[in-house]
What does this fold into?
Amino acid sequence: MNKEIRAKIIGVGNYYPEKILTNHDLEQMVDTSDEWIITRTGVKERRIAAPGEATSHMAAKAAKEAMKNAQILPSEIDLIIVVTVTPDMNFPSTACFVQQRIKASNAACMDLSAACAGFPYALCVSQALIKSAQYKTILVIAADKLSSITDWKDRNTCVLFGDGAGACILRPTNSNKGVLSVYLGSDGRKADLLYVPGGGSLNPASYRIIDERMQYIKMRGSELFKIAVKKMVDCAHEALKLCKMTTDDIDMLVPHQANIRIIKAVGKRLNLEDKKVFINLEKYGNMSAASTVTALNEAVLKKVIKSDDIVVLSTFGGGLTWGGAVIRW
Ligand code: UT7
It folds into this structure.
């Protein structure tokens, strides 16, 4: 028996809002076409949260599913980490609102911001806290209501994003399963390739911010594209290297779901057959960090990922940030 303690995912849950926005709906809103969106991105439709439905509402619903699957009570959770770039409010943390909704009264709560790459960041924090025995039952939720920061007049971005939440419960294990390695990286020099310039402390909310549409996502897509492919390949390799594995060991790659062309290029460079790359972005678009978690959870719930499989996560996003992880399921 391997005596090393590590974090293991013991239950997962997803939530998607009911409303579906199709490419045909977008054709009525901006100068675009279903054909352009499918060939350039792979996205066919995405979910949009209802009015009044915030990130914490979606996160709490995903969390309840994960608790049910893990067969644990809310009172057993001792830490809640919400990964998001669309918190309900600047403060308190969205994790505190989730705590309220799921009645996890024994938990400490915090948000983590690492944009689309956020899930490996949360796994890294959870792994360290579980290894050090500070926490025993950690609820990680990646949730975003990107529709609230999407400029519905900008065809360069509005066709890409959607809303949703994915949750998982982590517990210590001394078996050979669980999180084997995490590799993270960032490059703050390129922050202006993908960001929301208005609404924070630099450019607080004002009539000017609204007039200049600075409360919405700004993105330089084609520049990001090339870096995304490189970094997602690199971080998969680095995470594998940390646990002395190679791409031959991969049973399933779960990449960030930003663009089918990025995912295909990453799969090819890692020498993976198509069946070893999990893709679900056609139904949901890019939901920031929630994309990777919900994709992982969907693969698990559909039994595409099975016990003992080596699963590699590979993510990239605003910051810039990137992160890879290797999990033995
Ligand atoms: O999640 C975080 C990480 N995100 C990413 O890594 C995103 C990476 N980038 C991408 O996925 C792609 O760059 C996009 C999907 C955003 C754009 O695809 P692209 O192939 O890089 O297109 P482009 O931006 O170079 O634009 C090509 C053309 C332009 O027209 P001209 O200048 O060639 O006449 C755009 O104006 O496509 C036009 N275009 C559109 N046409 C129809 C841009 N958006 C649209 C649209 N419908 N929605």
Notes: Residues 221-242 form the longest helix (22 residues). The chain is about 35% helix and 25% strand. The mean pLDDT is 97.
